[in-house]
Amino acid sequence: MNYQVELLIDAPFEKVATLYVDLNLMPIWEIGLKSIEHTEKHLFETNSKGIFHFEFGEHKMPMKVSVEKNDLPYQIIQIFEVPGAWNRCDNHFLDRGEQTLWQMDVTFKFENDMNLPLERFVEKTKASMTVFKTFAEKDQ
């Protein structure tokens, strides 16, 4: 499953890119994120790996994260893995003066056919991007 989502953020792109990989601030905007574990190199360096530890009520979910490429402030490619699912997000931040156009090319692969409509994935991606947008637009 492949798709692209775009979102315009009312903040300069260097600020947006810096905030996106700030591990200390990430739990503020990444819903459910409780801690970050580095397993290879320091996240978000190219070829780094780690684990995001999420909690949703009583449910705990570790998610493997790896960084295929970090060319910020322009691009970062991340891969997220949970049992049964693999997700690659190719993020591009484009300078629009006092605004940033965030383009994300998304690929999902599933162990089993989930038979879920593409629209649900696009909506979920847009929703999580909007949470970050709101965070980035606030005065830091």
Tell me what the structure shows.
The chain is an alpha+beta fold. It has one domain: 2-Layer Sandwich (Alpha-D-Glucose-1,6-Bisphosphate, Chain A, domain 4), CATH 3.30.530.20. Helix content is 23%, strand content 49%. It has three helices and seven strands. The chain has helices spanning 13-20, 26-29, 118-137, and strands at residues 2-9, 33-40, 49-56, 59-71, 75-82, 85-96, 99-110. The protein has a seven-stranded antiparallel β-sheet. A hairpin with a 2-residue loop joins strand 6 and strand 7. The longest helix has 20 residues, at 118-137. The protein is globular and about 45 Å long. The N and C termini lie far apart (36 Å).
Number of helices: 3
Q: Hey, roughly how much beta strand do the residues contain? A: over 45%
Any idea of the CATH class? Answer: Alpha Beta
Helix content: 10-25%
The total domain count is 1
Question: Descriptors for this entry?
Answer:
140 residues; alpha+beta
Please give the structural blueprint.
Blueprint: E1 2-9, H1 13-20, H2 26-29, E2 33-40, E3 49-56, E4 59-71, E5 75-82, E6 85-96, E7 99-110, H3 118-137
Antiparallel strand pairs: 1-7, 2-3, 3-4, 4-5, 5-6, 6-7
Question: Outline of this structure?
Answer:
Helix content is 23%, strand content 49%. With 140 residues, it is an alpha+beta fold.
